[in-house]
């Protein structure tokens, strides 16, 4: 059958694919054969490995620990100006660093002008208070005496006021009303008398022999008098009506109002007068309290003034700065404050007086070493100035609370040989102590001791068996020192220990 070009190409591709597969399969079989040969060779070599071994070594173990610290003077006294009220501590004459100073001598000179002026001002204010107290006491004594008199006067005035009002209501007011009526009646009577006289004259003149001119004059005169009387009566009626309807009622109201005002005034006086006396007493008490406070302030300033006359509390060496667990602060932090014109703060410790008759060391103990150091009683103290000289030392105290994170404070006492100078406070030192000691201990290199992955505290080694096979052996270890480690249990001194971990 004749193939088309496309069919021919397809069949050719299949043939090539099959031939490629046959080739690759043959190559793989060849490779596997080579790997098998290599493995066989390796196995043959492994069987012939010669393990490097070591034997446990017996050593005398002596582990020492060196701790840093400072010498200090246990009798050293830090000094500050402990004023309670005055805060301005201006330096006029600064202290001398390293100067030997006697007890009671001046450490430095402070400016006292302002505080002395303040004390004098307070003395003046106290004197003024004394005068004011004296004046008020005399005024109070006078007012207490006058109070009785004024009370009696108020009582009399009040009584008089009541009596006057009663007299006005019962006597004056009725009389005034009656007087008005009587006065009007008097005018009426006068008019009546005048008219009667006029009538009598007319009758008389009709019977007598007087001339008409004379009669006329007399009658006219009498008539005029009657007319005046009528007018006066009319005015009296008007006045009477006004008096009774307006003036008398108004007078009565005014009288009552005046009486009420006087009563109110009296009541107010009864309240005010004792209150004024109480006010005087309170003013006196206030001034006395002010004087008391002024006296307290003056006393405090006087005490501060004494403290500002800075005197050494003991004999020794003056050191600018302070000590903290033996470490000196240095003098630089007080350089500005202790210059002339510098300002100190109250209660600020700025110098330390050191007798330098005794010495001890303050050592910083790491947290990890605290418990073992607590069991150690003795060691050697070494001065930073003279490392060659070692003094026997005793650890007398270890703090229960850390002084810094992960560190505790320890006090170390030591004996100073005769003729040797007492270490200066602040000098560095170190304490050497033996933390562990053991004779003829079994040891191994730390590189030959391994840890379990699941339990790092479990240690093991590889021991070479008589047949030359590595055997894993769990051991108990002790102290590590340098590149070695102490073995407490698990191996025999004659055991052959593999230096390195064998291959799996």
Description:
The structure is a single chain. By secondary structure, the protein is of the alpha+beta class. Among the domains are: 75-109 and 309-357, OB fold (Dihydrolipoamide Acetyltransferase, E2P) (Beta Barrel); 114-306, Orthogonal Bundle (Helix Hairpins), CATH 1.10.287. Helix content is 48%, strand content 24%. It has 4 helices and 21 strands. It has a 6-stranded antiparallel barrel. It has a 4-stranded antiparallel sheet with strand order 3-11-7-5, with no helix packed on it. A 3-stranded antiparallel sheet has the order 6-4-10, with no helix packed on it. Helix 2 (113-207) runs antiparallel to helix 3 (212-308). It is rod-shaped and about 205 Å long. Residues 36-46 have low confidence and may be disordered.
List its traits.
about 500 residues, six-stranded antiparallel β-barrel, 4 helices, alpha+beta, OB fold (Dihydrolipoamide Acetyltransferase, E2P), four-stranded antiparallel beta sheet, Helix Hairpins
The count of DSSP E runs of length 2 or more, i.e. the number of strands, is: 21
Give the H and E element order: HEEEEEEHHEEEEEEHEEEEEEEEE
Low-confidence stretches: 36-46
CATH architecture of the domain at 114-306: Orthogonal Bundle
| Largest sheet: number of strands, sense, barrel closure | 6 strands, antiparallel, barrel
């Amino acid at each position: 059958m004749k193939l088309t070009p496309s069919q021919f190409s397809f069949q050719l591709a299949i043939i090539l694919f099959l031939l490629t597969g046959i080739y690759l399969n043959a190559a793989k079989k060849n490779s596997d054969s080579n790997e098998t040969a290599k493995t066989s060779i390796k196995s043959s070599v492994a069987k012939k490995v010669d393990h490097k071994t070591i034997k446990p070594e017996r050593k005398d173990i002596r582990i020492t620990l060196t701790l840093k610290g400072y010498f200090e003077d246990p009798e050293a006294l830090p000094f500050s100006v402990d004023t309670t009220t005055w805060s301005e501590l201006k330096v006029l004459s600064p202290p001398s660093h390293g100067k030997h100073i006697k007890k009671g001598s001046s450490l430095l000179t402070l400016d006292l002008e302002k505080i002395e002026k303040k004390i004098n001002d307070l003395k003046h204010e106290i004197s003024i208070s004394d005068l004011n107290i004296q004046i008020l006491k005399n005024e109070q004594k006078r007012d207490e005496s006058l109070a009785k008199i004024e009370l009696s006067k108020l009582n009399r005035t009040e009584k008089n006021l009541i009596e006057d009002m009663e007299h006005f209501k019962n006597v004056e007011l009725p009389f005034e009303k009656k007087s008005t009526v009587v006065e009007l009646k008097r005018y009426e009577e006068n008019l009546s008398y005048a008219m009667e006289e006029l009538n009598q004259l007319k009758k008389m003149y009709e019977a007598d022999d007087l001339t008409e001119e004379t009669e006329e004059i007399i009658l006219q005169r009498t008539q005029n008098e009657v007319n005046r009387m009528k007018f006066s009566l009319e005015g009296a009626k008007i006045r009477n009506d006004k008096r009774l309807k307006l003036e008398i009622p108004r007078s009565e109201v005014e009288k009552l109002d005046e009486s009420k005002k006087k009563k109110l005034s009296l009541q107010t006086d009864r309240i005010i007068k004792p209150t004024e006396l109480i006010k005087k007493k309170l003013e006196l008490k206030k001034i006395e309290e002010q004087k008391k406070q002024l006296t307290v302030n003056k006393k405090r300033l006087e005490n501060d003034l004494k403290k500002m006359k800075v005197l050494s509390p003991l004999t020794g060496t003056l050191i600018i700065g302070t000590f903290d667990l033996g470490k000196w602060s240095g003098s630089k932090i007080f350089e500005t404050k202790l210059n002339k014109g510098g300002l100190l703060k109250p209660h600020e410790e700025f110098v330390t007086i050191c007798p330098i008759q005794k010495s001890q060391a303050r050592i910083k103990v790491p947290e990890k070493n605290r418990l073992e150091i607590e069991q150690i009683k003795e060691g050697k103290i070494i001065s930073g100035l003279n490392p060659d000289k070692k003094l026997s030392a005793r650890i007398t105290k270890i703090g229960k609370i850390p002084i810094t994170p992960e560190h505790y404070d320890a006090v170390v006492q030591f004996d100073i040989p005769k003729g040797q100078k007492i270490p200066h406070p602040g000098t560095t030192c170190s304490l050497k102590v033996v933390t562990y000691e053991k004779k003829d201990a079994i040891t191994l290199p730390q590189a030959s001791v391994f840890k379990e992955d699941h339990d790092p505290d479990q240690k093991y080694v590889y021991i070479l068996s008589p047949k030359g096979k590595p055997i894993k052996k769990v051991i108990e270890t002790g102290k590590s020192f340098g590149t070695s480690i102490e073995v407490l249990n698990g191996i025999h001194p004659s055991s052959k220990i593999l230096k390195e971990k064998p291959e799996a």
